[in-house]
Amino acid sequence: RDNRGRTGLHVAAARGNVDICRLLHKFGADLLATDYQGNTALHLCGHVDTIQFLVTNGLKIDICNHHGATPLALAKRRGVNKDAIKLLESLEEQEVKGFNRGTHSKLEIMQTAESEGAMENHSLLNPNLQNPEGVLSSFRSTWQDRKST
User: Fold this and answer.
1) CA pair distance 55, 12, nearest whole angstrom
2) Is 63 exposed, middle or buried, given 0-12, 13-18 or 19+ CB atoms closer than 10 A?
3) 1.25.40.20, 1.10.530.10, 1.20.1290.10, 1.10.275.10: CATH of 8-100
4) What's the first-to-final CA gap in the chain, in angstroms?
5) Residue from 8, 88, 9 nearest 47 by CA
6) What global pTM score does this model have?
7) Which residues contact 65 (CB under 8 A, 6 or more apart)?
8) Closest CA to 38 of 3, 61, 70
9) What mean pLDDT is reported for the chain?
10) Where does each ANK repeat begin and end (predicted)?
């Protein structure tokens, strides 16, 4: 790492050297490594080949650094070439569409999480849950209470 916490992968990505990125990855470089500001290699790169390589190998397009900036936001600020920005925009759009195509709406996901949290809290406080019937009846009453509110 250099004095900013950047790895060889960060430097290779920033310079657009996809061959070095591939080599580093082959020998075990951590693609998720962040520098001291929370930037991954994807945050620093502005070359189409390098972006494609990093995303294909698992880096998320919507990952934020410590300042809340995505790779696309930083690319726009740095004024990287238009093809790289178009690719990042396209990948970000695909990510959003993919999330929205899920089988459950955001509301359903939040309600499920809330119900699971209620069940966990309820089960920790309820001494009747030491037998199987207690678990089921307790879950039913918690679920009914949640549905009625």
Assistant:
1) 15
2) middle
3) 1.25.40.20
4) 53
5) 88
6) 0.61
7) 34, 37, 38, 39, 40, 43, 74
8) 70
9) 76
10) 4-36
Q: Which amino acid is at 20?
A: I
Query: ∠ CA(110), CA(113), CA(116), 5° rounding?
Result: 150
Q: Six-digit token pair at 14?
A: 């920033």
Count of beta carbons in the 10 Å neighbourhood of residue 88: 25
Task: Determine the Cα–Cα distance for residues 32 and 35; give it in Å rounded to an integer.
Answer: 10
Element (H, E) at 100: helix 82-100
At 11-67, the pLDDT tens digits run 999 999 999 999 999 999 999 999 999 999 999 988 899 988 998 888 888 888 898
pLDDT band with cut points at 50, 70 and 90 for residue 92: confident
Other CB atoms within 10 A of residue 125 CB: 9
